[in-house]
Write a structure and sequence with these properties.
The protein has a 4-stranded mixed β-sheet, with helices on one face. The chain starts with 6 loop residues before the first strand and ends with a helix. It is about 60% helix and about 10% strand. With about 220 residues, the chain is of the alpha+beta class. It is built from 10 helices and 4 strands; from the N terminus they run E-H-E-H-E-E-H-H-H-H-H-H-H-H.
C-alpha cells in the first residue's frame, strides 16, 4: 500500500477548518478516505483515540499516525508531498511571511469577523471596527495579486477560506455587512477567484445548507 492509500481525514461537512485540509489534499492530488464526524451529537471512539487532547476535527491519519489542527495538518501534507502543488514559497523569508499572515487570519481576523456577526450586541460595534481593521490589513497585503500565494492558491489563501466563502454567507444570514465590494474590492476579487477555482468549488459545502445552519444556530443572536 502506498502513501496515498494510507490517508484518512476525519472532518465535518460545514467546517472551514476541515475544508482547509480537504482543499490541500485535492489540490495536491492525494487520494484519501473521508470520515464524517457528527461532533455535535456523538464523537466517535476513533476520533477520541486519534485526538484525545482537543477531541475535535479535523484529524489527518497517515500511516496510522494522527495529526490534529488544520494548519498543522496542511504543513504536514506540504512536507510529506513536496513535489505536487507547493503551498508554501521556497524562500525562507517568504515562507515565514506566509506563516505570519496565516496565523494572523487564524488568531485575529476569523474570530473578530464571527463576533461581529454573532457576538453579544454590547460587543458588536467594537468587533465590527476590529473586523474592518483586520480586513484592511489583508486587503493591503493582497494588493494586486490574484491570490495571497501569487498566481496560484497558497498557504494563506487556504488559511483564509472562511473569509472567502463562509463569511459572505454569515453576513447574509446575520444582516451585518462588512466585507463589501465598495470597501474591500481586492478581497472581493480574491474571494471570487478562490471560490471559482474548480478544485476548491468541489470541496465547498452547499451555500443553502450553511445558510440554514447559521440561521438555526445563531439566528436569535442576530436579532438581539
Amino acid at each position: 500500500m502506498n502513501q496515498e492509500e494510507q490517508v484518512q481525514l476525519f472532518g465535518l461537512w460545514g467546517s472551514p477548518f476541515s475544508k482547509r485540509v480537504e482543499m490541500v489534499l485535492k489540490l495536491k492530488g492525494i487520494s484519501y478516505e473521508y470520515i464524517e464526524e457528527d461532533v455535535y451529537v456523538k464523537k466517535s471512539d476513533l476520533l477520541l483515540n486519534y485526538n484525545p487532547i482537543h477531541k475535535k476535527v479535523p484529524v489527518l491519519v497517515h500511516e496510522g499516525r494522527s495529526i490534529a489542527e488544520s494548519l498543522v495538518i496542511v504543513e504536514y501534507i506540504e512536507d510529506t508531498w513536496k513535489t505536487s502543488y507547493p503551498m508554501l514559497p521556497h524562500d525562507p523569508y517568504e515562507r515565514s511571511m506566509a506563516r505570519f499572515w496565516a496565523k494572523y487570519v487564524d488568531d485575529k481576523v476569523m474570530l473578530t469577523l464571527w463576533k461581529a456577526c454573532w457576538g453579544p450586541e454590547s460587543e458588536r460595534e467594537k468587533m465590527v471596527e476590529e473586523a474592518y481593521e483586520g480586513l484592511k490589513h489583508l486587503e493591503e497585503e493582497l494588493g494586486d495579486k490574484q491570490f495571497f500565494g501569487g498566481e496560484t492558491i497558497g498557504f494563506v489563501d487556504i488559511a483564509a477560506d472562511f473569509i472567502a466563502y463562509w463569511f459572505g454567507i454569515a453576513q447574509e444570514a446575520s444582516g451585518v455587512m462588512i466585507m463589501t465590494v465598495e470597501k474591500f474590492p481586492k478581497l472581493q476579487r480574491w474571494s471570487q477567484n478562490f471560490v471559482g477555482n474548480s478544485i476548491i468549488k468541489e470541496v465547498l459545502p452547499p451555500k443553502q445548507k450553511l445558510m440554514a445552519l447559521f440561521k438555526a444556530q445563531f439566528g436569535n443572536n442576530a436579532s438581539n
